[in-house]
Structure formats: C-alpha cells, structure tokens
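Running this now, will post back.
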Amino acid sequence: MAPGAELDAARAQRIDASVQRAVSAGRTPGAVVAVVEHGQLAFLRAWGSRRVEPDRQAMAEDTLFDLASLTKPLVTATLAMLLVERGKLALDAPASRWLPLLRRGDKAPITVEQLLLHTAGFPAALALADFRQGKAQALERIAAAPLAHAPGAKYLYSDLGYILLGELVATVAGMPLDALAEREIFAPLAMRDTAFRPRAELSARAASTEMRDGRWLTGEAHDPRARLLGGVAGHAGLFSTAADVARFARMILGGGALEGRRVLTEHTVVALLQPRAIPGGQRALFGDLPLGGAVSHTGFTGTYLRIDRARDLALVVLANGVHPRGGGDVRAMRLEVVDAVMSTPGSTRAPTGGAVMAGIDVLAAGAFAELRGKRVALLTHDAARTAAGETTLATLAAAASVKLVALLSPEHGMGVNADGNVADAREPHTGLLVRSLYGARRRPTPADFGNAEVLVIDLCDVGVRFFTYASTLGYALEAAALARLPVLVVDRPNPLGGAAEGPVRDADRESFVAYHPVPVRHGMTLGELARLFAAERKLSVPVGVVAARGWRRSQRFADTGLTWTRPSPNLPSVASAVVYPGVALLETTNVSVGRGTDRPFQLVGAPWVDSTRLSAALGAAGLAGVRFAAARFTPTQDPFAGQACAGVSVEVTDPPTFAPVRAGLEIARQLRILHGAAFRAEGMGTLLAHRATLDALRAGKTVDEMARTWQPALADFERRRQPFLLYPP
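Update: finished.
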C-alpha cells in the first residue's frame, strides 16, 4: 500500500469484525478484502483458510480466487467496449454481423448491447450434456436454444449470452479471449496474478472450491460449463487476487488509466458505468446499479467488486464461499462490509470526485427548513428525483411541514414522456391539477400559483440555451414577480459541466428556445440562471437557491455519483446529452438527428447523405475528443420516419476536450461542402439565434472563422455570469 493511504481505523475494525464473524460461523472458510480509496490501495487483509480439506491451509493476501462471474465485467464487457472504442464493434448493431451463429430466426436482431445487458432473451443456462462434445457443439447448441423472451423485452441474467459475447469478442479480435485479455488488460495493468487456466505456481496458492471427479478443484474453474469449454469462457473461468482486482478498479476510477498506462478512454469508462434503461429498471454494461451511483458485480464462488467513481472508492471482497461442499453463504458478510466501507467514511481527505448531493436531498437533510409551514407551488417533473429515486413531488407531498397547493410542469409533461403539447391533468396522488406550461400556453400566470407563499422549482436541465426548461424558468420568474411570490430553486449540477461555448443569442432573437442572451452551452445551473435572469431582466422577485452539495464546475455527470434520469424522451443517456448542444442545432434542418432510434443525437443522416465521404471528411477535420463512423439507421420520427438514412455516428472519446457546438457546426459545414443545396442549413438559425454564425456557415467559412464572430460576446458573457455563480471551479 502507498504511504499514507491506509483506511481509517473505524472502517478497518468494522470490516475485520464482519469477516471474523462469517469465518467463525462457518459461512466461509476465509476471505480477502481490498479497499481502494483516492487512487491508492488503502486496505488489504486476509482471514481464515483458503481450504480446510483435505488439509487446512491459511488464507494469505496473495491467495488466488476463482472469480466466477466477475469474469463478465473484468474481461468480456471491458474487451467488448474496447472494441467499440476502436470502431470494431457497435453496441446497437446486430451481434450476428460478427457472429454468424446468430444469423437465424429470432436471434438475428439481438444487439451487442442486449448481450451485455442480459436482455437478449437467452435462457440462464443449458444442460451440461450440451457442453460435453466440445466448444464448437456447445456454441451451436446455445445459438439454437429457444429464446426465453423476445430480444429487449425482459431482463434475464444469462451465462449463455455472455458465452456467446466472449466468442464474438474473440472472433472480432482474431485471437482467443484469454490471450486478448492478457494483452489488452492484464499486462498493461501489471495484473501478474490474473489468468484463465493459471500456471502451476499460481495454482499452488489458489483457494480450493469443491470436489469434482475425485479431486479438489484448485486453479480449475468451478463453473462446470466454463470447465467443459476448456477453462476460458466469456461468463466465467478467470482467476485473480484481491490486489490485482483492485488494480483493475483503480484503472476504472482513474478514467481508464493506471500509473501512466491507458487501457480505456474516459468516454469508454463512462459508457461502461452509466445507467441504461432495461425492462423493469436500470443496469450498467459493467453490472448492477446499487443506490448511490456505484456499480457492482458478484461471482457465484463468493466474489464481489463494487466501484464508486463519485466517492473515488472501490471494494473487492473475495471469499471462498463454496468450499468445501457448497454450503457457505457470504451475502450477509458482504452487505456488512459494503456498509462499513461505503456508509461510514472516516477519512478526512475529500475524494477527488466528491460525492454530490442534489438540492432536493440537501433540502430534505435540513428537514425542509426553508419551506416549513408554507404553502408551496411546485414546478417540477418526474425526472427530478432524490438519491433514493423518489420524485421531488412525492418527497414534498410527504413532508409534514410542507403544504403543496399548486403544481406546474414543463415541456414533456410531469411524466417526462410526451412529445408535443401536453394538456392540464389531475395528479393522482395529491389530487392537484397540474398546469402544463407546454400546452395551450407557455407562460404561467399569477393565478396558476393559487394561494402559495413560495414557488419551488426543481427541473433536470441539460445546460443548453434552447433546451426549453431555461425559458420556462424565466417565464416562471416573470409570473412570480407579478404575483409578488418568492422563488426557491432546488438546484442540480449542470450535467455538461461549467464550461460555456458557442454564440450568445442576438439581442433581437428572443424566443421560447432563446429566452435570454446566453451562449448555446451556458455552463450554469438553473439556480445560477435564475439569479442572472432576475438581475439582468430587473425582475422584482426574491430568488433563493438550495445549492447542490459537493459539486464542482469541472465535474462531468459521471463524476457526481448521481443517477441519470432522462430529462426528455430523446435524452435517454448521458452520451446523448453530451453531444446534444451541437447535433441538436441540425434538427431544424432537413437531416435526421437520430430521434426515433436508441441513440438520439448520436446519429446524423438522411437518405441522400454519402456516409463514407461524410465520415472521412469529419475525421480529417481534426476535432478534439470525438470520433465519427459511417452509419445507417432508420428513425421512427420525422423528418425521415421509416426511411433508411445514411450518415455518421458521433462518439465522444474524451469529454473534457470535446466541444459539442463546434462539432455540430463542422457536421453542417461538411454537409454543405459534400451535398450543396441538398442540405438546407437555413433552419439552423432558429436554435443558433446568431446571424453572424449562420452567415459564416452559408459563406463556406471554417468553424474557427465562425467562432471568431461570437468570441467577444462569449467573453462578455463569462464576465457577466461571474457574480451569479454558486459553485467552485
């Protein structure tokens, strides 16, 4: 362990007591626990025995464990995303493109992402008899097995899906899965004690599992299907030590790099960890999503890995739960250790990322003191949630000291599921009428607030001028000023961070998508914008802000520990939100921006686009932090609903250096160069709200030349916003 990196005594003692109890009670013969904190191995300790039969051998910190299903995230998912990063795989593409075994019947539509998320439809397992004739026949039997459900219809944890995914990865890479993992993961991370089919000197210090065929399995895969597949499979078979697994976790916490060696890009790490919608809930490509923004995965033998980037913390628990006869149970111990490490931080050092609390959680932690005894009008939607997943509406409705008297909702409605106008509707739990501010009217009136004593606003914004929640905020402030009603903004981090980019709105271009002279990407929270709007528009309204706690302007959403909840039907993921400020500029032209696909704003195209030439031209443009690949897609929404479109996919490889507005303008520029009058750029004027930029685009100017038209006003905005900022750099 690094000097000064030791875990504090209180948490170490709690871990020790929990594992000792499990060993003493016979729930496991032994275990090793490692904790990573602030980028360093802060705790590593062993307890009990690595085996008790045929003879007892003491557990050691360097004991090798059968990781079982931890193989899935450490090897298969990581390598799959590495191939996506390199442009050799695509998450939304049919897996059958690379794995011919799946080119049959109902298997053909299964995507790579569905295999990763266990939503492909494969059953959990097949009989061992299907594996006894060798790997080729086993793969054929899996591919031929009837699906348990249609692809994407349900979540069903499936070893079979991951066996196929491991084969797909090996096929695309052109080398066996174990050799690929050694080259791309284990060797770069100096994970010297990690391997499939460990060599004799490693097996000599492996924890034994159960007896099979008259011998104790030591250094041989416990999973019978992995064993019949030769010990190398996408779902199981990997062996490692707690220290080596901790090195992997340090790489993930470090944004894809460890000790100067980069394994993954930051963008790929975010893609692995970000919440993704699945039937009945959410899951990450890496594994489960326990509350609090962490990701985790378990293994049948008693192994566990949890990574929490927001707290710069990781936990590795390797227990020998199946030895000697499979009767162990380490679940209670694991929960206790998680609670000790995650819930009782004793370190006085701040995490590099810092756990972030949204304003609603800060408000609740203070017992709603700012609202105690008051009648409240609430402007919100169901995307605004606490860390526990409860909506702000439900949270305030349940608060005994708060009386809700009026409800208002922005574009997309209270349920954040509508495109187009939304009618007023009765909210079923409170019985209050929800006044829609995206229906027959956009502006609230003083009467909409009823007899409220304060207007509370909690909306999940995305930090873009033309995303209409900023305008709804402004209109609400104006109405509150007329009603002489104070406003309290319950704030949330800007998911795009604090940087500003793009043209400031022209003075005469005010509209519902351009409420105030701010740049396309303003880098402010709604609380900060409310302060700026009230001051610069001279609104006589007191504006208070319940600030988010722990957020810094330099942080991206993945660093906050908060769970992404889509703020509109077409922003289902952080990846879509990151490119939205630029790609969305094109949606008022005659190209599709991927609405009606599973990757809105990450796809741009039209039936008349030459995807090969466009992707090559954009690749040669030298834009930082982004990669373009030729793509074909069929959107279900206008302007080309149901029509095959050619174009590009937009993949952000390095979010800190990516400038989305410049990227959107470069796409438009290249479309004009390649397709001339077929691309109608004039529509971009609505969202740009800046004549000089549009004129420069129509004149064939470079993006650098376009940017020079807005730099003076952008610099002035940076100065103007300074007094209203609430969060440190």
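The two ends are 31 Å apart (CA to CA). More later if anyone needs it.
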